[in-house]
Design goal:
By secondary structure, the protein is mostly beta strands. Helices cover 0% and strands 47% of the residues. The chain has no helices and 14 strands. The strands form 4 sheets. Strands 6, 8, 11, 12 and 14 form a 5-stranded antiparallel β-sheet that branches.
Length: 192
């Protein structure tokens, strides 16, 4: 174990091999690793990693994976939630997963159901909504269990360019089915 500075207060209950606790007001580097007098990895006193060698090409997929959520709230059984934008691509990204979660069970029915749709509207053709995922609460696709995410990974139109918009809407059939506390989540990776 190596401790530099005063004892840390937020270490692991199982122990800490290396701890650094700089005095209040310290403005230098907490860590500075060098090769031949050139810094290759630094952590500043503000916790920011400063290095030229960490870039998107050297990051793992996990480091490039992001999540965006859209709280829809409750949708009545015979209500159609009008298409709303909920995500604007900050860069070139690929949608990996779409997830729907509710706060109450949704019974599967072939006559009374809801179709939940996530679509892409590309910056060059915003009038066209390209479906990414369309899930219908019928007996083929199944219903939903409260508080259990219903995830989809076999998606279409998953490549988004900077500025492309993802939208969400619902459409009911028959007497529909209520969607209580609906949350839409997308998982996406940056491609650059």
């Amino acid at each position: 174990m190596l401790s530099l500075g005063s004892a840390i207060s937020g270490g692991s209950g199982s122990g800490t091999y290396l701890s650094i606790n700089a005095a209040n007001g310290y403005a230098g580097d907490l860590v500075n690793l060098e090769v031949n007098n050139s810094s290759v990895f630094r952590i500043g006193s503000n916790g920011v990693i400063a290095t030229a060698s960490v870039n998107s090409g050297s990051m793992t997929t996990g480091a490039k994976t992001h999540v965006a959520t859209f709280t829809v709230g409750s949708v009545g059984a015979t209500t159609d939630f009008a298409e709303q934008p909920f995500f604007v691509a900050p860069a070139a990204v690929t949608v990996q997963k779409v997830t729907f979660t509710t706060t109450a069970d949704v019974t599967a029915s072939d006559t009374d159901n809801q179709t939940l749709t996530v679509a892409r509207r590309a910056t060059g053709t915003p009038a066209t909504a390209d479906t990414v995922e369309a899930y219908t609460t019928n007996t083929t696709s199944g219903g939903m269990t409260a508080w259990v995410a219903k995830s989809f990974t076999s998606l279409s139109n998953t490549s988004l360019s900077t500025g492309d918009v993802l939208t969400f809407k619902t459409a009911h059939a028959g007497n529909g089915v209520a969607l209580n506390g609906l949350l839409v989540t997308i998982e996406y990776t940056t491609t650059t």
